Amino acid sequence: MAFTAKDVQALREMTGVGMMDCKKALTEADGNMDKAVELLREKGLAASQKKAGRIAAEGMAYAAVIDGVGVVVEVNAETDFVAKNEKFVNFVKGVAATVVANKPADMDALMECKYDGTDLTVTQQQQEMVLVIGENIKIRRFAFFTEGVSVPYIHAGGKIGVLVNLETGLTAEQVEAAGKDVAMQIAALNPRFWDKSQVTQDVLDEEKKIMMVQMANDPKMASKPEQVREKIVMGKLNKFYAENCLLQQEFVKDNSMSVEQYIAASAKALGGSITFKDAIRFEKGEGIEKKQENFAEEIAKQLGK
Fold first, then answer.
1. CA 180, CA 269: separation in Å to the nearest integer?
2. How many Å apart are CA 109 and CA 102, to the nearest integer?
3. Which positions ≥6 away from 122 have C-beta within 8 Å?
4. Alpha helices (H) in the chain, listed in sequence order
5. CA distance 8 to 14
6. What's the Cα-to-Cα distance from 91 to each of 23, 100, 288, rounded to whole Å?
7. How far apart are CA 172 and CA 148, in angstroms?
8. How is residue 113 annotated by DSSP?
9. DSSP code at position 290
10. How many C-beta atoms surround the C-beta of residue 212 within 10 A?
11. How far apart are CA 16 and CA 25, in angstroms?
12. Burial class (CB in 10 A: 0-12, 13-18, 19+), 220
């Protein structure tokens, strides 16, 4: 009996098992869906089906530099207890190593990669972990930098993972301290933008609008000429940059300078140049407190539900 790609997808939705294993099972079952499900259960692959329906919102964010490539991943589990399990932590590190080795384009590509040090795909290894640990486990997202020098920082044992990417002629060891300081600032303050140049015109227009309305409602300000109020608004925008843009923020460890000035001072002290290029900040279960329903939908979508 022949089967189609839709049959493979249907089997995946029924069992939560990876696409390639579903295809193999349908081939072995000669296209019979019930027989394919039975085969997957016999192999232990579909044993995680019930667990796969449960929301994994704990876990950890992990950042590292492997063979010069900076990588950050978030892997979710159901409980904080499992998130501290050595096997789970090693699985997360293996996911990061797999990302570095394969540099996948997206989550689908990653799940079909060979998991680091094994002949299993990432999907299969994830299913193995579900069976071993007894909780639903899901790889949620990843990112990596191949250029420049990356500096990782992990806050609170995996609550937040930050990866800072720098352009520099100095060695990774030389810029590590400065990079970590910047990463810690990002972890603590979660800036909306990296630099004021990234603030879009619509954001500026909205801020200006709010400020002008506030002044119009303030008796002391309402009587002032419009050009004076415009000048005051420009001053307030500088405060907006200082609060929302990383490089313009006050450096937490030394409030006499901005982050941008701190980076420049660090480069000067080291006798070289350091330029902040980019960063990634992953917070475990980010958005779940405010958007529980959306987070559940996201996980369900990943599960093919």
1. 16
2. 9
3. 95, 98, 110, 111, 112, 113, 114, 115, 139
4. 5-15, 19-28, 33-42, 49-52, 80-83, 86-102, 107-112, 122-133, 172-189, 201-216, 219-222, 226-244, 259-270, 292-302
5. 10
6. 26, 14, 23
7. 9
8. S
9. T
10. 16
11. 13
12. exposed
Whether the CB-CB separation of 103 and 135 falls below 8 Å is answered with no
Structure-token pair, residue 25: 């099972």
Q: Which residues are within 8 A (CB) of 137 and not within 5 positions of it... i.e. 6 or more apart? A: 56, 59, 75, 76, 77, 88, 91, 126, 129, 130
Pairing type for strands 60-66 and 149-155 reads unpaired
Q: Could you read off the pLDDT of 238-273 as tens digits, one per residue?
A: 899 999 999 999 999 999 999 999 999 999 999 999
Provide mean pLDDT across the span 206-215: 84
DSSP 79: -
**Separation CA 145–CA 166 (nearest Å):** 10
Asked if the model's pLDDT at residue 179 lies above 60, the reply is yes
The answer to whether 136 and 51 have CB atoms below 8 angstroms apart is: yes
- Name the pTM for this structure: 0.75
CA distance 57 to 253: 32
